[in-house]
Amino acid sequence: MAHAMKRILVKLSGEALIAPDGYWLNPQTLTQLASDLGQAVAQGFEIAVVIGGGNVIRGAKVGAAGWIDRATADSMGMLATIMNSIALESALEDRGISARTLSAVAMPSVCETYARQPALHHLRKGRVVVLGGGTGNPFFTTDTAAVLRAIELKCDAVLKATQVDGVYSADPKRDPSATRFDVLSHDEAIQRDLKVMDTAAFALARENRLPIIVGSAHGEGAITAILTGRAKATRVTP
Ligand SMILES: Nc1ncnc2c1ncn2[C@@H]1O[C@H](COP(=O)(O)OP(=O)(O)OP(=O)(O)O)[C@@H](O)[C@H]1O
Ligand SMILES: O=c1ccn([C@@H]2O[C@H](COP(=O)(O)O)[C@@H](O)[C@H]2O)c(=O)[nH]1
């Protein structure tokens, strides 16, 4: 099927992988995400994925607590994203969906090291490309990694598939009076300091005129439903 947007970078939350009993990885969530990403590929989308590490560690929080150096905590965070990435790769392959993990942090006995050309090759072959290790540098987050890789790999948009169904005037989990946007500009998102993505990520997207779509990852086929316009989502556009 032909779509106006073809190559999409899907940003998944690491925190969403936590199981109801608190274990860091919920196999049901992984299976649902894998099946959803497989549906998107079957619909003709080329899919790259960046998955966060918030189910294991967030470097800024641990660094601020003071018991470990921030850069070290960030390295731990990047490693957490690689664990999540290979878990997702495994869930995809188990369902017959061809996938490759490429890591910004070299660990050749675990997965390929990220380079742009091989990543593009895998995408053209219809493989889901799971990009682990964030940017490979401390003091960044996987939101920024998602935007960076989307630009490098000439993606049409970043889809942030998250816990909420769009961008709100404030965090809807904390402020029940927050109102939802259907569309807004990168400028507005930055000026209003909307925390659904970090400012560095929004700024990089603005500079490169990269659209960001924010919608809910919950429910069967949620990602494909957003990409095909069947589910509501907020579009952050230049
Ligand atoms: N203005 C806002 N509009 C929508 N959501 C917001 C807003 N401000 C804060 N949020 C919160 O941001 C969260 C989205 O971030 P999420 O936890 O999915 O990603 P992350 O922190 O990038 O991922 P990870 O869990 O891997 O670290 C939403 O669940 C929502 O509660
Ligand atoms: O480029 C990057 C990306 C991530 N990190 C560290 O990993 C954790 C987990 O990522 P989230 O985006 O918060 O889910 C992050 O908090 C950083 O500590 C990094 O250092 N560099």
From TrEMBL:
Protein name, as recorded: Uridylate kinase
Gene: pyrH
InterPro entries: AceGlu_kinase-like_sf (IPR036393), Asp/Glu/Uridylate_kinase (IPR001048), Uridylate_kinase (IPR011817), Uridylate_kinase_bac (IPR015963)
Main location: cytoplasm
EC number from the UniProt entry: 2.7.4.22
Top EC class of this enzyme: transferase
Organism of origin: Alsobacter ponti
Positions bound to UMP: 53, 74, 135-142
UniProt pathway annotation: Pyrimidine metabolism; CTP biosynthesis via de novo pathway; UDP from UMP (UMPK route): step 1/1
One Gene Ontology molecular-function label: UMP kinase activity
Function: Catalyzes the reversible phosphorylation of UMP to UDP.
Entry binding sites for ATP: 11-14, 54, 58, 162-163, 168, 171
